[in-house]
Amino acid sequence: MGVREDLKDYLERTAKAVDERIEKYIPRSFGESSLIFRLNPPPYRLDFEALNKAISEPLWDFLDRGGKRWRQEKDHVGAVQQDLRLLREGHGQPLPGASHGFGVA
What is the pTM of this model? Predict the structure, then answer.
């Protein structure tokens, strides 16, 4: 068994424990009995349906996809950052509109 297989086995074995730890703080579904609201009760009434649709569902959908699904998002963000860095560094030539506060390439 190589390093790659050992790592894959390790990640599969520990994934459930990691998910349980995350779920302790960010539940799959928020409700009045959620830990965060027991520790810090909100001074107003919360819309748990909206909270779940905006936070829990997207987060857990993403986490449940597994690590390989993260790579594309990370690469996309990295590519965007690289594109922005190239625009900033450029050749020292002003970008069109630079005099209006849009920057220099």
Answer: 0.51
